[in-house]
Amino acid sequence: xxxxxxxxxxxxxxxxxxxxxxxxxxxxxxxxxxxxxxxxxxxxxxxxxxxxxxxxxxxxxxxxxxxxxxxxxxxxxxxxxxxxxxxxxxxxxxxxxxxxxxxxxxxxxxxxxxxxxxxxxxxxxxxxxxxxxxxxxxxxxxxxxxxxxxxxxxxxxxxxxxxxxxxxxxxxxxxxxxxxxxxxxxxxxxxxxxxxxxxxxxxxxxxxxxxxxxxxxxxxxxxxxxxxxxxx
Length: 232
What we know:
This protein has 232 residues and is α+β, with helices and mostly antiparallel strands. The chain folds into two domains: 21-88, lambda repressor-like DNA-binding domains (434 Repressor (Amino-terminal Domain), Orthogonal Bundle), CATH 1.10.260.40; 103-229, Umud Fragment, subunit A (Ribbon), CATH 2.10.109. It has seven helices and eight strands. The chain has an eight-stranded mixed β-sheet with strand order 1-2-3-8-4-5-6-7. Helix 2 crosses helix 3. The longest helix has 22 residues, at 168-189. It is elongated and about 70 Å long.
């Protein structure tokens, strides 16, 4: 009879030897059952596309450790670092983040540099999502998601004013427009933002956010988003 103790060692003595497809599938199936989750439950919490595909992973038809879904399955099934190492043939332990207890992202965290290498965060502008962020991955790859914060420029750009002959009304309108842009900029700098990296025609990288498009010089990259959870 199998034990339901979630803290019980699940692989035996040679835990860093890569499991074959059947053993790897059996590991995630047993773990899912220990947690009382259905196939559909796991699919809703991971990047796995369907219960049918998860069934293939669990029965060794596809090696789960070599699939792109291993990271999200590790989080959903609360696998420890040694289990992940056995699944994916990685000899070092990997961090598994508990998305049930995310940290509210605050810019001072970035400025102080006091944060874990991998952590779960909620962003003020996306309160219904939990972003799992790897802060060691800051190389910019088009198409990937990142958490960014606004970078304050070293010098403020001068405000263009219209020629005097255009009149005081136009000048006042320009000042108000500049003030509004400055307010939006300062507001942007107060929060962390989910952003997708895109490559411009000149090869430079820009970030697309809910607030607009920003060049890589205008922001600071906190880390790459490796997984997005949607808690119930």
